[in-house]
Design a protein that fits this description.
With 279 residues, this protein is of the alpha/beta class. It has a single domain, classed as Vaccinia Virus protein VP39 (Rossmann fold). It has helices at residues 10-24, 30-33, 37-48, 51-60, 80-84, 97-109, 127-130, 149-159, 174-187, 197-206, 227-238, 243-256, and strands at residues 68-72, 89-93, 115-118, 135-141, 160-170, 212-219, 222-224, 258-260, 263-266, 269-278. The chain has a 7-stranded mixed sheet, sandwiched between helices. It has a 3-stranded antiparallel sheet with strand order 7-9-8. Strand 1 (68-72), helix 5 (80-84) and strand 2 (89-93) form a beta-alpha-beta unit. Helix 11 crosses helix 12. The protein is globular, with a radius of gyration of 19 Å. The protein starts with 9 loop residues before the first helix and ends with a strand. The mean pLDDT is 92.
């Protein structure tokens, strides 16, 4: 008897859900959102408020002083910098100008000199030409926006000599729910989130990879000095360009944010999944 799951190409499911998500929000993509240095700095500051989570991620990753680490979708160096403080070398792959700019500033601020920054999308990276493999650890932390996730993971595996760590989302996130509430009003179409960790697991399974799995919940509020700055920052993420669209977003934020210590706070949360395996 053939299991129906064996007849499903889960990489095609990932592609379909990615296409559907991109189709519902054609003006949004991860690199574009973080081209702004201000947005990248705000992301860095938010991550520093989650310092315990960052420290736990580094502590749970099997590295030594001799390890070589490949960080895919490194952002402003949230993980790359603490990894570099513990390992021999880190290669950070990051396509967004704003993120790369902040990462280089933070490298100088923390006196870190063993990070090589590769300003490319992972899909465009040639492992042999652009990188210096093999790496003891390859990690992609909430940066799995690739359309062909099977090819992306295979490339990660090719670059690794030992471990691969993936972090992704399970179920709807707080931002999925917020966009679902106002996307129709802003853009005249339904918001569709991207594929989650259930599809990712099945892609790995069909690749013959059976990862360890840990699920955890994370609260991560965003803080703004004013409603105007919150609207400006979120408008870029929401692809809100017209005054009517920005007005809808502003009203949503006005109702959803709370005052705390002289700032406006937009509550955020997500359920997250860590998957890792030894090659």
């Amino acid at each position: 008897m053939i299991d129906i799951c064996d007849e499903i190409d889960w990489n095609e499911v990932w592609k379909s859900r990615t296409d559907r998500s991109r189709g519902s929000a054609p003006g949004r993509n991860c690199a574009r959102i973080w081209e702004s240095k201000d947005s990248a700095l705000r992301f860095w500051d938010m991550c520093q408020r989650e310092r315990s989570r960052i420290d736990q991620t580094v502590w749970e990753t099997d590295i030594t002083a001799e390890s070589r680490v490949l960080d895919i979708g490194a952002g402003p160096g949230t993980l790359a910098i603490p990894f570099a403080q513990k390992a021999a070398h880190v290669t950070a792959v990051e396509p967004a100008d704003g993120m790369c700019s902040v990462m280089r500033e933070k490298m100088a601020e923390f006196g870190v000199h063993n990070i090589a920054v590769v300003k490319k999308r992972w899909e465009d990276v040639d492992v042999e030409r652009d990188l210096d493999p093999p790496y003891d650890v390859v990690i992609a932390s909430f940066s799995l926006g690739m359309r062909d996730i099977r090819a992306a993971i295979q490339k990660m595996t090719d670059a690794s000599s030992r471990y691969v760590y993936l972090y992704h989302f399970a179920g709807p996130t707080s931002w999925d729910l917020q966009w679902e509430r106002i996307w129709q009003s802003m853009h005249g179409r339904e918001y569709r989130p991207g594929p989650k960790s259930d599809v990712l697991y099945n892609v790995l399974y069909q690749m013959g990879i059976y990862p360890h799995i840990r699920t955890f919940r994370l609260e991560h509020d965003q803080r703004y000095p004013s409603l105007d700055e919150a609207t400006q920052d979120m408008a870029f993420r929401a692809d809100a360009k017209t005054e009517a669209q920005k007005s809808i977003l502003r009203e949503y934020l006005r109702e959803g944010m709370r005052e705390e210590d002289g700032a406006l706070v937009l509550p955020g949360w997500s359920t997250r999944v860590k998957m890792w395996w030894e090659k």
